[in-house]
User: Fold these one by one.
Assistant:
Number 1:
Amino acid sequence: MRSGPEPDRYAVIGNPVGHSQSPRIHALFAAQTAQALRYEAILAPLDDFADALHAFAAAGGRGVNITLPFKEQACRLATRLSPRAQAAGAVNTLLLDADGIFGDNTDGAGLVRDVTHNLGRSIARQRLLLLGAGGAARGVLLPLLLELPAQLLIANRSKQKAQQLVEEFSKQIPPAGLRACGLNELAGQSFDLVINATSAGLSGISLDIPAGLFAPGCLAYDMVYGKDTPFMAQARQAGAQVADGLGMLVEQAAESFHLWREVRPDTAPVLRQLRELRGI
Ligand code: ATR
């Protein structure tokens, strides 16, 4: 009996990478859309990401997701970049083909899609607060701005980093009320959507933010998934609707899958299945 052609190969590269949900998510997408592909997790040495990537490409790999800590390095190795990857200065998706390495960043689109489609909340014309000014915040900023919120305030512990982001992104897009402030300057302001892009929740640290931040009907979104962060507890206490980043994770994966296979998977059953599996 002859076997069929080898399925196309994809991978997530990171360090650590064992915790990544991407192999599971892409296997579910592939089964749902009847795409013949294999998706694996590759642990790259911290000092040798480039070799790991080039070895996978040489072995016939068609596409890669990049996770911490290689997103910026992957951006530099790409031979072409999407505008959103360029703005983010980081990539989470690579398309490997005869033209070289195309780098994209689907994180922001994943966040926007989760908020607007899965959670049914508009970003356009809303008052938006982004907490944090590190890589996670930078990665989602352009897609958020393209939704044309009434205002987007970036608040960060180090105010200077928030100011730098505002300065940089104001050059790229007409600043629709794009402003920066320190985390300690939020008193007296309230927002329709508050997105936590700080890493504080990962260490279980609560942010020093006023309860009045959350306007009535506010959605408080933590980009972290898989744990109830102090930010989520603070927001819930203040009466906000609360969401974690699992939907963003699934949606950014769907956006990568679409780039690679030109097929858009239905994310709802995959998100449901992940929540059931994880008990969240
Ligand atoms: P990431 O890629 O996750 O964004 P990062 O680039 O190191 O990681 O950025 C971490 C972000 O979380 C920063 O905005 C950081 O604030 P500073 O720029 O002032 O350091 C924020 N952060 C981390 N721990 C925090 C804490 N305990 N309180 C407030 N902000 C915190």
Number 2:
Amino acid sequence: MSATDTPSAEVPRDFIRDAIRSDLDAGRHTEIVTRFPPEPNGHLHIGHAKAICLNFGVAQEFGGHCNLRFDDTNPAKEEIEFIDAIKQDVRWLGFDWGEHLYFASDNFEQLYQWAEALVQTGKAYVDDLSADQMREYRGTLTEPGRNSPFRDRTSEESLDLLRQMRAGAFPDGTRVLRAKIDMAADNVNLRDPVLYRILRAPHPRTGEHWCIYPTYDFAHGQTDAIEGVTHSLCSLEFEDHRPLYDWFLDNLPVPSRPRQYEFSRLNLTHTVLSKRKLMRLVQDGYVDGWDDPRMPTLSGFRRRGVPAAAIRDFIGQLAISKSYSTVELAMLEHSIRETLNATAPRRLAVLKPLKVTITNYPAGETEQLEATNNPQDQSAGTRPLPFSREIYVEHDDFMADPPRKFFRLSPGREVRLRFAYFITCQEVIEDDAGNVIELRCTYDPATRGGNAPDGRKVKGTIHWVSAAHAVPAEIRLYDRLFHAAHPAGDDLQNDLNPDALVTLKGCQLEPHLATAEAGQAVQFERQGYFCADPDSRPNALVFNRTIGLRDAWAKMQAKG
Ligand code: ATP
Ligand code: MG
């Protein structure tokens, strides 16, 4: 599936794929069915991308299919807005669920019928304990729990109460339906887990139809079974729930028998991957929404200009295993640079403009030079680039009094203008405060295209734009959201990188960029990868820096 050719992406091997292979070889399944089961209570982040690439990837590799299933069992926190956004994100990442779009809520009636069946066979009961009492009766990891005094009420009584719960006879939270398993089980999840709770909240899909809702545990495995899922792949925190997952399947007349496998979640340095923490960043105003380009959400990456192929490439290199690990953010950044290097057209853009007048170039004249679009990809061709007497260069590419190794512009020094001419700095104009505001240079007409016929060399090549043709833009320089490698604690504020967004105004771009489409990556030569932001307007262009050309953080760490 991966758009690049990393061997790990082509022939993935891991314990999950091995299990699937042996199931197929043994004839236990004819078609592999997986599912990606997001809860629509937030936006997808790069951790979810691991689950998406695994579930959809495995289904594709083995010629099966993957369901997109919304796990919408908790209406208190769920919204339609999230459902639509999640669909968009999965599609953007490059996966297609075809006709297999499902909602756990599609099965509410069936699940309820199964709950009644458990009550009728003495395997579930209605409990009147309060939440606090239930917690107390549950015991701890080291002490067994105690039976609720309501555990032994008759099936008839429990059934009657369950029906009244459904009919809305009781206030929220006053009773629950629990499985009758074992209050002394070592695994706390088996200590009579809750199957249904009373909750009056309008559900995005079923509206006011229900006032009791199944728990994740009661819904998940049975929904897998109804959908014919063969391999239910989830993250490691569900490992202790597996005995319960199996208990329901063993005790209910489900139409198929799925199996749950657990793999370790993706953790990334300099990042938080928890919807709750991400929600806090949005609500407390540290970022401008879920799709802020600093966010590790898929919508944030998309807006920042990260191609979906880079994310797939990164995920394809991760081990699918059961061991906890935290992956260096630099690894994702590497995938982003590699992908963009191969695909992004090169453009010229001056972030901090310094005016240069070419005194021996005719006033009012314009010529079109030829610029290569992508040296990595000859088929990308060339584009015309206008040149004239007044241009902008990068302020940082000039030094009045340069150190020895500075090969760019300085008084008397000759440099190459990319795709254009050699120029020599003849005069430096300063304002009253001594700031350099303009350079006066001469050019050598014989060096058109950037080479001297007499073979003379220059050490510096700098980028530029023609002042009369350039389009102004705001540029948002994005960097890592957290300076801390392992942002910790609930107060994330101290770990935030204050320079994660630096906004530059009055940047000057080559004219081609006036029509750039939002999200389409380009390389600004010598600067990094950028894309137009959705905020961009024809006369008020806005570009985002996706990532710099080199890993500035590694350099900083090496310097110490
Ligand atoms: P969060 O912890 O960010 O709130 P979640 O697990 O509650 O995420 P869900 O919507 O329930 O979010 O997740 C859908 C699927 O994505 C689940 O199968 C979950 O295991 C998987 N998933 C979530 N986060 C990660 C992660 N960091 N790495 C791998 N898989 C993940
Ligand atoms: Mg979850």
Number 3:
Amino acid sequence: MIIVMKSWAEQEHIDKVVQRLAAIGCEAHISVGQSRTVIGAIGDREVIQQQPWRAMAGVERAVPVEKPYKFVSREFQPEDTVIKVGSAQIGGGVFAPMAGPCAVESRDQLFRTAQAVREAGATILRGDAFKPRTSPFSFQGLAEEGLQLLAEARQEFDMPFVAEVLDPREVELVASYADILRIGTRNMANFALLSEVGKVHKPVQLKRGFTATIDEWLNAAEYIYKEGNHEVVLVERGIRTFETATRNTLDISAVPVIKHMSHLPVIIDPSHSSGRRHLVVPLARAAIAVGADGFIVDVHPAPETAQVDGDQALLPSEFEELMDQMRNLAAALDLTI
Ligand code: PEP
Ligand code: MN
């Protein structure tokens, strides 16, 4: 059961609910969001359901939830979560195109890419300063210098940016620069990191672990939500299957499945799923048709020189063409882009 408090509820109202739960031998998981507090009631379902929760001061509603993940479920919140970041929006009938280099390599590379994707119509810039590399000898990112360059690009091109955070000890640093934090596929089940970004008041993109089921992914999102950060965006970025023609297999069906199960926005990463430039455009187009709330695409002004993921980066001109097609698709589907 989840007990949703009214927006005006005071601490004493919350305390009374927690005390009532304790009195019937149950535990309370409190999640203090920006607009309201929600309390997850853990214990004997029958006993919890018998309580007249709505009669208590400050309680808006009590929702029975069957799933192990509660806060991110549709049962808990029937209406879609809509996230606003600066002038950009994710969800609520707005398709959010996010694009930029996989990694920030230099000011010139970042600024050329940011200008191109902005002019083409992207609303959020991507670019990482900390890279999770398979080999410890590969380029690991420019660290804080990369974040500084991203902050300058935000200013110059008037677009918020998303950057990956790899380590719980670096959450504060990345959050002090980035508008949106991203948890990569390798860290989807890093529960210490999830809890840490759950304490930040900035949206978080949570990529699906490449071997994770949808249930495991939603439970990971629950770790963030539970700490009070309710602005979570799910990113389908492909899963590992027996197929070798693509880097990973984009699980396109995950989008409508998630839409049914959860109120959180979900976007697609056609770059890291396919790993091949010629597959990015068709998969990006599929994102809008299947009901995703956006995409995140790698773009590089000279992919052949890229330090990371050059094989999958679109050229700025290819991204521009993709965006023209996306605008047509959005119009056909009655969506804003
Ligand atoms: C990325 O987006 O740059 C990235 C490393 O993605 P993933 O975690 O999905 O591999
Ligand atoms: Mn990458």
Number 4:
Amino acid sequence: MREKVKQLIENATEFIKNSENVAQINDLRVKYLGKAGEITGLLKGMKDVPADQRAEVGKYVNEARDKVTAMITEKLAQLEQKALEAKMMKERIDITVDNVDANRGSLHPCTLVIDEVLDIFTNLGFKVAQGPEMETDMFNFQLLNIPKDHPSRDMQDTFYVGEDLLLRTQTSAVQARTMLNTQPPIKLVCPGKVYRPDYDATHSPMFHQIEGLVVDKHVTLTDLKGLLDLFAKTLFDSETKTRFRPSYFPFTEPSVEVDVTCAVCHGKGCKICKGTGWIEILGAGVVNPKVLDRCGIDSKKYSGLAFGLGVERIAMIKYGIPDIRILFENDSRFLKSFK
Ligand code: DAH
């Protein structure tokens, strides 16, 4: 009897191990444990086992039943897990996409220039200020020493929205706004859009400027030279030289225009710099004392320096862009080259 049970367990182990699906396992369950199953048969036959052997035989028949039950349960769990995995593999959704990079955007060259210029000045302790694009005549012109009907208005054609309202022509308007409600020391840069009715290869009716202003005690033209020279060397490269030419702006006295050695030919002379080796990058000067006084800052105690640069102009020089309009056409082939 013991031998028979041992054989039964061996056979069952082999069958269970080799079964390949749930149906086969269920058949084995019936074969061994079902109503007419082999182990069930043995259990039923216990009554025929002589009484003195019944306890012992009962023990290993029960053990056989427990063992086969456990093997079947385990195998069933394995097969179910396998079936689930197979189902998941079959129904798997591929959430990866090829060429994700293909249409990834990039920063616009003007944004790149604005970020870089602001970085340079904020590293020098400048704060970033902003003002409205629709401005009053007062902030855009009058407080900056450009009275109504004065010829210097002709320097900047203007889009008027109303009698005293206009689209700002210069970020210098933010100087006036800041000085009116801040006492020195002031160190700010102000990026933003400005508007003028011009349209050709180097002018666009909307463009970007960055204004700079420093007001403190004993600020001089020398500080302006040092600051802008450092700026140009950081923005282009350390070999870049700067040149200050006398100029005129109503809000600065003296006023200068600042040239840098051409970023393309390094001063030798090429098409970009029209053979001169120099390229103008910005206007600047010592803040006109009249402007300080009009904006509530005592010009006997304080002085200032200011500068204003055109972002598109810098982008055109830096990236060799021949026509300002390319910057606003947003041709993706052009924009992609700035990735
Ligand atoms: N606002 C001038 C322009 O739009 C640029 C400028 C020149 C700004 C000299 C300044 C400055 O602050 O001092 O042409």
